[in-house]
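Late entry, written up from scratch paper. The run itself happened at the end of the previous shift, but nothing got recorded in the book at the time, so transcribing now.
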Amino acid sequence: MESLNLPGFAYKVKQVNGKPHIFDIIRRKFVTLTPEEWVRQHFIHLLITHYGYPKSLFAVETGLQYNTLAKRTDIMVLSNHALPFLLVECKAPFVRVTDATFAQISRYNFTLQPQYLAVTNGMSHYCFQAVNGQIHFMDDFPQYRDFNQ
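Output as recorded:
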């Protein structure tokens, strides 16, 4: 897998039926190692190691309903009250972050209404708040210790 613009971490990879799998510390199992999964695992570790988020507040690839469509969130961090706090949309490194990416996470925001939203392809990362229909981009991701729960 290619280098990302994210800190490295001690990952575990094994072959299953000739395909690489990476251990997901949130789901506690090996999952198929795709370029998007590579980004997701790096970002999970970034949030835990550098921003202090407890593993117990993460939900990975959880389902949600948007209108009549079934969708999946890449990473959702919950507050201590089990409400969505940070929603992260991950793309493979070769997928550009475009207006369509922001539109996708905005649709999830409509349903889940987290306090913060983030988009990453492992090379570029964006964090913002959507408040009353206004987007407020942030310089950095919120630290776990800094938000009121």
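The mean pLDDT is 86.
(Scratch paper discarded after transcription.)
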